[in-house]
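Q: How would the structure tokens look for this protein?
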Amino acid sequence: MANDPRDAANPMPRFPADFLWGVSTSAHQIEGAADQREPSVWDTFTAAPGRVKDGSTAAVACDHYHRYPEDVALLSGLGVDAYRFSISWPRVNSPGGLDFYDRLVDELCAAGVRPVPTLFHWDLPVRFDWLERDTAARFAEYVSVVAGRLGDRVTNWITVNEPAEHTLLGHALGTHAPGKQLLFDALPAAHHQLLGHGLAVQALRAAGATDIGIANSHGPTWPASREPADVEAAAFYDLLLNRLFAEPVLLGAYPEGLGDLMPGDVQADLKVISEPLDWYGINYYAPTKVGAPQGTEIEFGGIRMPAELPFSVQQIADVPVTDFGWPVVPEGLTELLTTFRDRYGDRLPPIVITENGCSYDGVDDQERIAYLDGHLRALHRAVEAGVDVRGYFVWSLLDNFEWAEGYERRFGLVHVDFETLARTPKASYAWLRDVLRAQR
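A: Here is the predicted structure in token form.
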């Protein structure tokens, strides 16, 4: 079997001995509302008819809030070094809300699994708004509270997850919470999330943290053709989805005049946004093929793209796709990492792949095995090319509430029956367990 890690003819390449192996989840997608959480923007969003494709909410999700010991046992059986989860700001704002994370962190430590919390993964309390500058300051206050409580056991921290998607989908296009359709007037939400990231780094440093990163989503942008209009559109898309969120953090500057569109004292803010990091997290799923605008509304990957956008997103031909319709292009990960190394040089800290995964149905998920096998080999090629990569996290441990898709998309290594909440490890879980054993 080509994808069998024990296959002597085609073994998985060996990663460095100190390479960090993990899996990822997020609070709103798995915890359930339980009994201690103030409303989030996602609670409001999912309550409106037509927002979520199957009409579902995350009121129960995987009920990780009550079943976390079972899920930590799954982590232990998988053999990962680390578990990336997120901390719900709305839960922390509720009386006793941090107690759950105390218990979870203790359970992880007892199992020998390193806790790697993300402090913002899209579940914003409804009383805040990333379009408002004050939200960044309130975020830093919340981070200080969490670090004060968990910092004696947590050494690795992630500030924010995918501010690009939260800006684009939540504030520009309205397909995610909070459901605003502001197009380019959504840029202040991007700036304030990045400012919140920088203030969170400062708050974590003040609490003694020494291992801090961010989880930004990135992917190569491929022009639809060599025609100047397609090349120009692809460059703009790369600017908007990659450089806009990487360069303030890594270089302390916005690209090509975008700083003029941001609110407040941008130069002072950039000094905060570019607080030095210990590593840079990248969520990778696929490249994007981009061409000149076509003047019509299209739907791509479950997202409605309005006609007035200055680019069009197009299908990549002759590659497999996941059940979500996303292209499977492992070599795009190698390209992305070498591009970042060449683009940012010594300003780029060590990299951790904080998310990589795919949506496929079924428990005998051979397609997911092939996907992970291909991406791990592509990641190793980047390491061989000299990119300093320190870790890799699979998305996701569990099938979960997949935002506006509801429960129709399954990204988990573990199948969840959303009627009974029974967990069943998939074939990919056993495959990854064997990969990790072989690595050691």
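The first strand starts at residue 20 and ends at 24.

The radius of gyration is 20 Å.

Upvote if useful.
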